[in-house]
Amino acid sequence: MYGASLEWLIHPPPSETHPERTTARQLLILEGHGQHIPTSFVYLSAQIAARNDFRQRFPHIVALRAQCETSHCLRGAIHWAVGLGPSLTTLSLRLPRSVTAEVQAVALRSIRGRVPYLQRLEIEMDLRGLSEGQALDLALQVVAFCDDLRSLTVLSLPVEVLETAWQVRGQAVSSLPLLRELSLSTQSRTALSRQPPVREGGFNNLHTLRIRAPLFQCADILGSTSKNLKRLDIQCDFLENAHIITGSLRTITNFCSTTISHSTFLELPSKKPHSMLPANMNALFSPRGIPSPVLLSNLTDIELTFTQGSPEGLRLCTFAPLLSAQALRRLSIRYPYALSYTADDLGDMLGSWHSIQSLYLNPRPSRGLISLSSTPSVGILSAVARCGPCLQNFCALVEGLGTCRPLPERTWAPSLQKLDLGHSLGTRQNEEVLVAAKYIRSLFHAVHIETEDCSDWVVDVAAAFGTIDDAE
Fold this sequence. Notes:
This protein is an alpha/beta fold. It starts with a helix and ends in a 5-residue tail after the last helix. The protein is built from 16 helices and 15 strands. The longest helix has 18 residues, at about 240-260. The protein is about 35% helix and about 15% strand. Among the domains are: about 1-120, no CATH class; about 330-470, Leucine-rich repeat, LRR (right-handed beta-alpha superhelix) (Alpha-Beta Horseshoe). A 9-stranded parallel beta sheet has the order 1-2-3-4-5-6-7-8-9. The chain has helices spanning about 5-10, 20-25, 40-50, 55, 70-85, 100-110, 130-145, 160-165, 215-220, 240-260, 280-285, 295-300, 345-350, 380-385, 430-445, 455-465, and strands at about 25-30, 65, 90-95, 120-125, 155-160, 180-185, 210, 230-235, 265, 300-305, 330-335, 360, 395, 420, 450.
């Protein structure tokens, strides 16, 4: 909505019609990527609010999303939220960092009590950079606004808002009678200096909790929510040191083992690249004092990305605890250098993960290949054929110089559809290439060998694979 077009939308000429005005169900007020709403938006919105009934002119709008980066966008959006308030069931507000805490607090007070039938609420804001008093005042304004919404079923807030408010209002948000889903997230790697108090009770109907935060914050939040949870989703964009990981996972695991009655999803880390020491990784998968891998037993997807490391780094890290993730369907590991494992290791993995469909074992290490001596040979593919009946995609770095293993005995036809050998190396002599191609063909008759962003040897093997006669 811009300038005269906003006025025209509200007051179209008699000769013109604007059916979208009466049929629209959602209003979006968006700023971002260098695009900003003009300052006249505030004035026009105030004028419309003063002389028009928003709900009469927009009778079907039930959702408002305001993504603001400027003060005038926020002030204008509040006019619309107030005017449409009784009709709204969904409200999403992103409060801009460029606006002072006082202006944000005024905005929240302006719409408090004006949206009585709201069912879904999302608030994005950032308490970083505020004084302790400002952060507390603003957090209390947010939870006071939320606590008035007795029809609310889905709520999304920054972790810091709830943690800060709980310092003085231990029951904040927890008494909402219909709240079933709570999502909490943070963009920061460090929490505010205060720790949430130990809380009891509340969140009686909460069945889904989603947390995107460092592990220690996830553990703190879990200890303050309902014992009736049915689903817990945790996404961690940053892993702390081994001591913190161990303590946090112990808290999370103990909570899950006694309360969670539905699948638990843990994404550690997320798709963003991370730097992680092997000691920290060991603590993640095999923390002392946690007898049963409750979380791992329910995991279906694990993606591990290391942006820093040494050629010997992962040799200090054991992935054996991953074998307890018996529901695993997809595993991806990226590391700067080649991974070192044997066909027997791969067989143990596939033998433990009966449902695994995609296995990505670092086929393109970012720092290249240091030594062939520790790189798995092409013979590891025999383990895939022998132990991976459900595996559809296999991606790995191998060396094609070694002796191919004997063909395995098997009672099923391998389901492998795609083989990605990435930057694997081998002798490019025609005879040697053909031997490797025939070996792959004998294991996986109809597999597709990936050639994009692959070494010359892999391209040669793929070409030879396509020329092999079935009679051979």
